[in-house]
Amino acid sequence: MLGNFVYCNPTKLIFGPDALEGLGEELNKYGKRVMLIYGGGSIKKTGLYDKVIKTLAACGKTVVEDAGVMPNPTSVKLDEGAKIARENSVDFILAVGGGSVIDYAKAVSVSAYCEYDPWEKYFIRFEDVSCKIIPVGCVLTMVGTGSEMNGGSVITNHEQKLKIGHVFGENVFPKFAILNPELTFTLPKKQMVAGFFDIMSHILEQYFSGSDDNTSDYIMEGLLRSLIHSAKIAVRNPLDYEARSNIMWIATWALNTLVAKGKSTDWMVHMIGQAIGAYTDATHGMTLSAVSLAYYRYILPCAPEKFARYAVNVWGVNPQGKSLEEVGEEGLREMGRFMEEIGVAMHSSEVGVTEDIIPGIAKATLIMDGGYKILTTEEVEEILRASL
Amino acid sequence: MLGNFVYCNPTKLIFGPDALEGLGEELNKYGKRVMLIYGGGSIKKTGLYDKVIKTLAACGKTVVEDAGVMPNPTSVKLDEGAKIARENSVDFILAVGGGSVIDYAKAVSVSAYCEYDPWEKYFIRFEDVSCKIIPVGCVLTMVGTGSEMNGGSVITNHEQKLKIGHVFGENVFPKFAILNPELTFTLPKKQMVAGFFDIMSHILEQYFSGSDDNTSDYIMEGLLRSLIHSAKIAVRNPLDYEARSNIMWIATWALNTLVAKGKSTDWMVHMIGQAIGAYTDATHGMTLSAVSLAYYRYILPCAPEKFARYAVNVWGVNPQGKSLEEVGEEGLREMGRFMEEIGVAMHSSEVGVTEDIIPGIAKATLIMDGGYKILTTEEVEEILRASL
Questions:
Q1: A372 part of contact set with chain B, CB < 8 Å
Q2: Residues 216-255, chain A, touching B (beta carbon < 8 A)
Q3: B366-376, pLDDT tens digit by residue?
């Protein structure tokens, strides 16, 4: 049900093949000292780095760089980044990369002037920001996380074997996001499809929750159908602009708070996937795909109507003469066929899970209460074994 | 295709049964002198007026009132409102009402300090704002126009027999919108269903345009299915919170620029409907319903694939063994059945159109070029005759 909520999403999205041309105008709204954050250097190979540096120079900015953000950014790296931002008194943070880079940039923006240990404050105690926030903008090169239009940030603590996400308020949302679908063309296929599944999982985590039939469910069904349609095209031809642009747009709207309205939201697939990630450092989207079918098959009996609706409205399953559970199972089989077609991990063994680490992963899995069933740690173990 | 565009929608939406409690906090962000704009006084009967006045007083505001905004606000009224705003140097405009009241408030906000005749500048010459803009906020009491989260404003000039809309930029969007579905419960049924059809028409004007298969089409199919589902419930029980809240939410998202992305957009039904409105002063949504089926039947042969997709994905038509046009026609028949079920005007004769004024209405109809066919004035006449 659409009860009491506030929707406010001030991120300005500049979309399309010419989107980067809008970067200068946005940068001009902020101060002179810019911290440029990026990942492993692929943006240097593609020429994007040079274009961004040229724009920064044309805007008269002083640039301090923080490169080498890893796929699962760590709390150790975060402390270093916060120090760089603070010591250089940066006025603005420009993140160029995928979700990890933007997640990390947001974490730096609230950690530079944080009077406590940011890992402890934000990711263990889930506290609100109480210090000055450095504004962030981004140029997106990989789609999936939706980090470009939300307050989410996931950080990994290797010592504690924990990968935890914090959702910050709208004052931490990127001020702008440059979304050029062509910038995603050079991404390796494995990362591309992992991103596709990450998007699908974001939608499903929200869709499979709550008992009401509200507009968010209908919007999500539309987003899912568009995603499935375009993902099949993009896998055959990664240079198909229309498919890649649709997927970039879906990724943003899948996780910018819109479709969560009226939903309790589940996030158990992400909790299990993140626990796997903390153990194996596997690609985020692949950890999600590896456990999704096992999880949803386990959960199906708790909400057969919703799973049947999913099968019919998203996968086109014909419900005639079948029980709700049969229809729901057919939908999950169709989902499995799609996952095989695009080439994501189908089993958790593919992302490094072995019998011996299952108890540890299950123990590290945060248990959420927004889905159709509140799991026990034993049930998480059971799902992980079924997913092997 | 999702080409180059900017999406930025800064309106803060405060939704739900308790939404009005958020009004004070928003008002406190602006200056002391508030212009309160409303319509025919129904807000006094429902008690909403007293609640708003109490909040304004609690915030220490000086209030100047501008009541009596008519369903189709006129250019004469606009000149009066602009004068009130200017002479009282108001810091903020609070609109309490439906789309007409909010449309009018936005027009006042850009006309108070306009150095030219606002009707001529904005609605005849379609010029951008070049003067100071007074910020606007709103409390919505009737859904349909989507005016609460966009820059649209429709003004009628009776002398010139013209009803014209201007779409202003994001600096004219309401700063906030209070969306309490319960405030719409007291609306007379005729106005309620006219609003439902206005929403449907907003979506269809965008859906039936362009040749590409993009995510916006999928989102719109979801919005339409949710609207149809909830409208049927609301007509049987106008006090059904879930149905009314879904419809309020759909109305906002149908016309806040999101689903237009990648679409050329048509708007011919609105152009014909507005021309009828300028002649008959009929309820906006009813003028749209009265001509929609005649218009879409006329246009169907130009885009049979899209009409067939509409029939299948929105109305559940079984396409087997039928031509695209047959499937499309079946979809329009289903749409007609739905329109009869909710009780909107099915013929233009019901909204005051007669043979003798058809040439005048057709001549007053602005011809747009974003749909599947660029009409001639003769074709508009033909459609109007078919709709009688």
A1: no
A2: 217-223, 225-226, 229-230, 241-242, 245-246, 248-250, 253
A3: 999 999 999 99
